[in-house]
TrEMBL record:
<comment type="pathway">
    <text>Cofactor biosynthesis; biotin biosynthesis; biotin from 7,8-diaminononanoate: step 2/2.</text>
</comment>
<feature type="binding site">
    <location>
        <position position="99"/>
    </location>
    <ligand>
        <name>[2Fe-2S] cluster</name>
    </ligand>
</feature>
<dbReference type="GO" id="GO:0004076">
    <property type="term" value="F:biotin synthase activity"/>
</dbReference>
<comment type="similarity">
    <text>Belongs to the radical SAM superfamily. Biotin synthase family.</text>
</comment>
<dbReference type="InterPro" id="IPR010722">
    <property type="entry name" value="BATS_dom"/>
</dbReference>
<dbReference type="InterPro" id="IPR007197">
    <property type="entry name" value="rSAM"/>
</dbReference>
<dbReference type="Pfam" id="PF06968">
    <property type="entry name" value="BATS"/>
</dbReference>
<feature type="binding site">
    <location>
        <position position="59"/>
    </location>
    <ligand>
        <name>[4Fe-4S] cluster</name>
    </ligand>
</feature>
<dbReference type="Pfam" id="PF04055">
    <property type="entry name" value="Radical_SAM"/>
</dbReference>
<dbReference type="GO" id="GO:0005506">
    <property type="term" value="F:iron ion binding"/>
</dbReference>
<comment type="function">
    <text>Catalyzes the conversion of dethiobiotin (DTB) to biotin by the insertion of a sulfur atom into dethiobiotin via a radical-based mechanism.</text>
</comment>
<keyword id="KW-0001">2Fe-2S</keyword>
<protein>
    <recommendedName>
        <fullName>Biotin synthase</fullName>
        <ecNumber>2.8.1.6</ecNumber>
    </recommendedName>
</protein>
<dbReference type="GO" id="GO:0009102">
    <property type="term" value="P:biotin biosynthetic process"/>
</dbReference>
<dbReference type="InterPro" id="IPR006638">
    <property type="entry name" value="Elp3/MiaA/NifB-like_rSAM"/>
</dbReference>
<dbReference type="InterPro" id="IPR024177">
    <property type="entry name" value="Biotin_synthase"/>
</dbReference>
<dbReference type="InterPro" id="IPR013785">
    <property type="entry name" value="Aldolase_TIM"/>
</dbReference>
Amino acid sequence: MQAVVRHDWTLAQVNALYALPFNDLLFQAQTVHRQHFKPNEVQVSTLLSIKTGACAEDCKYCPQSGHYNTGLERERLLEVEKVLTQAKAAKDKGASRFCMGAAWTNPKQRDMPYIIEMVRGVKAMGLETCMTLGMLDGEQAKTLADAGLDYYNHNLDTSPEFYGEIITTRTYQDRLDTLSHVRDAGMKVCCGGILGLGESANDRSALLMQLANLPEHPQSVPINMLVKVAGTPLENVDDLDAFEFIRTIAVARIMLPKSHVRLSAGRSRMNEQMQALCFFAGANSIFYGDKLLTTDNPEADADMQLFAKLGITPEQRHDVSDEAHQLALADAIKEQANPPLFHAAQ
Ligand code: SF4
């Protein structure tokens, strides 16, 4: 069975994948995964919040929205130097991609010179760059691409049908327009969604259908599990069954065979066995070793231990300049399997 990159999925076809017996679904997903990726490699990114809180949007899951009182400390745009210091630390800890996120509706013109300096500086360290700054117009997308930004993250969050229950301050079409500006500017797209918002099974299928039926599949597809934050409207929503989450990873892997599927927010609430099943289902990217914006992310040590237990190594970049840093991370993981050595190296 050779996986085909398709853009014509129907809801019935996606629902049929979800309805497969669990073992059949995982077997199919793992088979597709092996056609396009090394089965025991996981790409590793680090995320830094460069501007936190007081966002004008009303995303009901988000502690950074200015519409809800979550006690989150607001921070203005970080100075370029501070961002570069953090990027260097992330690189030393083993990340190959550095993602910078700002809680904005969209970047303002006055912010662009600082943003551009951040992109250039991080890139100069040999890291891949990714940003999430809200909506972009065509010109802003081009400016960021010219500065060397590799990826732009902008999520669809959920299905078009359920979207209005979660966000009212911008439309689904606004999001699709930003994605199209990013693609047109030649940047890679990072786009996914969040599960556990109170959406139906059909909504989860419809989200994956939207992602797979875009003109190009996003190169990176974060699948988040809602982290319920007190003070947000979704703080008491029912938990999503863990198997439904794993099934979603598997269906995403089958529908988006060449995309990196990322275990993103909510990973710190997953035990090792669930994360391992997600890797088996086709997840091959994580955020590593730092705070995932404002929600907890498992510490680097725990990630290294899990990688060592599973025989997973960080994905090698095809960029020679980065080889030394990838080797250093591989070494750190090996040392982690031997605790005395690892701790001596701290
Ligand atoms: S998800 Fe993004 S756009 Fe929505 S409120 Fe949070 S920071 Fe703002």
